[in-house]
From TrEMBL:
UniProt topology in membrane: Multi-pass membrane protein
Family: Belongs to the chromate ion transporter (CHR) (TC 2.A.51) family.
Protein localization: Cell membrane
Annotated source species: Coniochaeta ligniaria NRRL 30616
Protein name: Chromate transporter
Transmembrane segments annotated in the record for this chain: 20-41, 86-112, 124-144, 177-200
GO CC annotations, alphabetized: plasma membrane
Domain of life assignment: Eukaryota
UniProt keywords, alphabetically: Cell membrane, Membrane, Transmembrane, Transmembrane helix
Pfam families, per database record: Chromate_transp
InterPro entries (UniProt xref): Chromate_transpt
GO terms for MF: chromate transmembrane transporter activity
Length: 203
């Protein structure tokens, strides 16, 4: 991380690793929070286009597994766009995003068993969890503001510009939160509603 700050012109693969490592270090609050960070550290650098970022996000969200796996897609695409092998970027992205958490867990495992029973530690964790919920809502709002992408767009805009996507979002939330619809079914339902929109508007 020191080298990231001191080296003015970093090779892409080194910059990719350091940015992923930084995102993995400062992230707290679960998978959704990492998405805006990855957009900031990858898209802003010019390694991946906003459109490719959003398309990859849609694909990753439709599969099981943590959102951190998105780093593999971004790493491979960033490396490929710069003329490096995609597998190199994928491995670097994977190691960079997961390494901080693994180091933290294994580095504090010995003292955590003692600390977790202390009342003041429990109070700190409750506050951190509450703050993490706020971070998740912030991440969801940011995704809402960039989630609409079309063929003619180079970057995403707000989903609110198209009423049908508001209906799709509300349907997904209502079905899962109130009626217990399984998440995979909700994702498939979203795909079906996308096809309906395409059939009515684009066909």
């Amino acid at each position: 991380m020191v080298a990231r700050a001191l080296v003015p012109s970093r090779p892409l693969l080194f910059g990719l690793f350091s940015n992923m490592y930084l995102a993995g270090t400062i992230i707290f609050g679960g998978g959704p929070v990492v998405i805006p960070l990855l957009r900031e550290y990858i898209v802003t650098e010019g390694w991946v286009s906003p459109r490719d970022f959003l398309l990859g996000l849609a694909i990753v969200q439709s599969f099981p597994g943590p959102n951190f796996n998105f780093a593999v897609y971004l790493g491979s695409l960033a490396a490929l766009n710069a003329g490096y092998p995609a597998i190199a970027g994928a491995i670097i992205g994977y190691i960079g995003i997961f390494a901080p958490g693994l180091i933290l867990v294994h580095g504090t495992m010995g003292i955590w068993k003692t600390l977790r029973s202390r009342p003041w530690v429990k109070a700190i964790l409750r506050g951190i969890n509450a703050a993490a919920v706020g971070l998740i809502y912030t991440a969801v709002y940011r995704l809402w503001e960039i989630g609409y992408v079309d063929v003619s767009m180079s970057s995403g805009t707000s989903l609110g510009r198209e009423p049908w996507w508001v209906v799709t979002t509300a349907t997904s939330y209502t079905a899962t939160a109130w009626f217990g619809l399984p998440v995979p079914v909700a994702i498939l339902l979203g795909g079906v509603m996308g096809l309906i929109w395409y059939g009515v508007i684009k066909a």
